[in-house]
Amino acid sequence: MATLYYDPNARGADDGTSAGDAWQTFQKAVDNAVAGDVVLCTSLNGTVETLSANVDVDTNQGTDTSPIIFRGTNGSFTADGSLCEIDGGGAGGATNVLNITVSGNSYLIFENFDFHNSNAAVINDVSADLLQFINCKIRDSVTTDGVDATAERIFLRNCSITGNNRHGVLNLQNKSEIRQCYIADNGGAGMQTSYTRIIVVDSIIHNNGAQGLFYVNGEGHLIARNVIDGNAGNGVEINGGNNGQITLIMWNRITNNGGWGFDLDDQYCMGDYNAFYNNTSGEITNTGYYDGTNDVTLTGDGYTNRAGDDFSLTDSAEARRTEILIGATGAPTTGYITNGITPTDSGGGGGARRSRGQYFGRG
Prior knowledge:
Layout: E1 3-6, H1 26-32, E2 38-41, E3 49-50, E4 55-57, E5 68-72, E6 84-87, E7 98-100, E8 104-111, E9 113-116, E10 123-125, E11 128-134, E12 137-139, E13 147-149, E14 154-157, E15 160-162, E16 169-170, E17 177-179, E18 182-184, E19 191-193, E20 199-201, E21 204-206, E22 213-215, E23 222-224, E24 227-229, E25 236-239, E26 247-250, E27 253-255, E28 260-265, E29 269-272, E30 275-277, E31 282-285, E32 296-297, E33 303-305, E34 310-313, H2 318-321
Parallel strand pairs: 1-2, 2-5, 3-6, 4-7, 5-8, 6-9, 7-10, 8-11, 9-12, 10-13, 11-14, 12-15, 13-16, 14-17, 15-18, 16-19, 17-20, 18-21, 19-22, 20-23, 21-24, 22-25, 23-26, 24-27, 25-28, 26-29, 27-30, 28-31, 30-32
Antiparallel strand pairs: 33-34
């Protein structure tokens, strides 16, 4: 287990062993770090690395108790929330910023990064399960998606996924999680998946060009304590499933969407305690087993400054006055990273440093 360094502006031995001898390309960092290593990464000492080809993550993997951690820092290699920026180079640059092809349980963690401006998906995960992105910006794919992850147990926590040409997040597979994320201003859906048991909690899904959350198939999902607002299509659309695994939808604020608040074409969707306002087609269709006895229809969304992406509730907001306190615990307010917010809750989304075992559910 070693502490290693990446800095594209270093001019030493380029072996990663010290700040002065830091690796000068991110490709060298991912090729050489091994289980238990922590790679401190900065782009704040001069120019940002701009890629002409993918960073191919195809060599090393961590373990359950000894993941490989890549952590963005300030220019002095102190982890204070500063982001390490890696530029994909745009249409003529890298196809992906990260092209992840290690197989099976990867135990890789990327924390405090700004990955952006690739030609296709910013993060392309072909086969690596157990992969985490914490406090990262994933943005501005020229032609496709922010994250395209055809693998299981992918964890996105306290991330901002914005401005991608197509979907914010595509193809998350079984047992993956989105917690305390800001997914906004993408050309397609905020998230689209065809798989089962996807958790989306404590997040803002806003102003995407199609559905907020689109479940093409699959079942057994949890959708809780989110703000799903201003998306061009349905707020939440769930198709298919019907094999008996319950999808639970509770304590969400579903507002200002261009279609239905919920379109639940799956008889095993259950939920209650959601608040609706100003969804063009109405609150809910294809209800199946959905209860909704304690749902609330609001007369205003109650947001402090929706135009400025501030989704905190005013003191007089109906959702605040109701006894059910929709979204009151761990509710998102604004775009976390872009506005300097580092929320914390018992779900472990952001904030306090976690021990190695806790990263993958052992703590």
